[in-house]
Amino acid sequence: DEPKISKGKAISRELIAAIEGSRFALIVLSQNYASSTWCLDELLHILKFMEAREAVLPIFYYVDPSHVRKQTGCFEKAFTQLEERFSYDEKTKVQEWRDALAKVADFSGWKAKD
């Protein structure tokens, strides 16, 4: 955790360096995950630097992995809002986030339940 993170800001160089220097990543996917561009940008960096090492473990925190993969339910709602918020030129970024979530949902992970 970085205490001085402001909502809506780009992820810092320090965080990117920490991702690059990590041996593995735990990605906690919750109901509000796709509403955070910060989390989605972090996910892109994690996949870029760690996917080849197979060092990514998704944790599905009270969400169904199929909802993450197919972007249904709360993920569909979040992406609808993101697409409304971003201009036509920025739609590629939204698609990158969609692709990253679909990819991470296919990894072996852990599902939190009641």
From TrEMBL:
Highest taxon above the source species: Eukaryota
Keyword NAD tagged: yes
UniProt-listed Gene3D superfamilies: Toll/interleukin-1 receptor homology (TIR) domain
Keyword tags: NAD
SMART domains: TIR
Residue intervals of the TIR domain: 1-114
Pfam family, one: TIR
Example of a GO biological process term: signal transduction
Protein name: Toll/interleukin-1 receptor-like protein
Taxonomic source organism: Prunus avium (Cherry)
Gene responsible for this protein: LOC110748133
